[in-house]
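dumping the sequnces here before i forget
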Amino acid sequence: MLEKHVYYAELQNLARQHIVSKANHMDATYGRVGFPGVTLSSISEAALVEADEEWPKYHCMSPHGGFGNRFRWAEVFRKFQYRPSFFNLAVWQELDSDTTVLQALAIGRPSRGKSHLTIHAFEKCFAPYELKHVSLLVLSCANEYAKLLGTSRVLIKEALHEPVYLEHGFRQYQLPRLNRTFLSKDVS
Amino acid sequence: MMAKRKALAEMVTADADLLSNAIERARARAREVHAVCTHTMIDEVDGALWGNWGDDEGNVMIMDKDILKDNDPFDDDDLVADAA
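..and the predicted 3d for all of it:
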């Protein structure tokens, strides 16, 4: 079992590295840093503590009141971590030499047969120092991990602000059995 | 005592081999995929926008209200097959 966890953790690490190398390439090509001081990593205990204790201070800035009004990230993480292939991402940013902040968390999992990867939770920090367009990093990592897994689609369950995802190429997707519409993007 | 130590050393070596094999398999998989395609969603961003984001994107939260329930229907591969 441990070797499966290691296999998928390394696969996600490689997906993150690939996204970082692409971002660095864009920085060099266009002479502007897209996401300064950002590190992409697995969700750690420190990330869960920051999301559950620091983020709620800024939930008043969110029109939906924040994820933490309904769930604790630590609880969600424990629910997902049993699956070795679960998708998880923490976006950290170094604001200055003394301050590193958590900018986003995302979690999801592939279907059992690995035909699709679903993002079930994603929240960004609403503090005044929030990282603009952090969704691009989250969706790129999910898409890249899905590609390494061999899945054909990334699904988003219950996006609260659909236009952002439509802008990133996601489309509404009817799932007849659930009688609901979700968002989907083919893995490219 | 020596036999016990030797057995323990062999077990640790075997576990370490399994883990390093898992890492190597993941790296081989990434090499195989990237040999065919290195495209990412970042490549789809308009260069004029890169690092010059303008307004923020607002509330981008994804919140599956059933996230803590068991029997997630999204685990089912037929979910997508049915829709196709």
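The mean pLDDT of chain A is 92.
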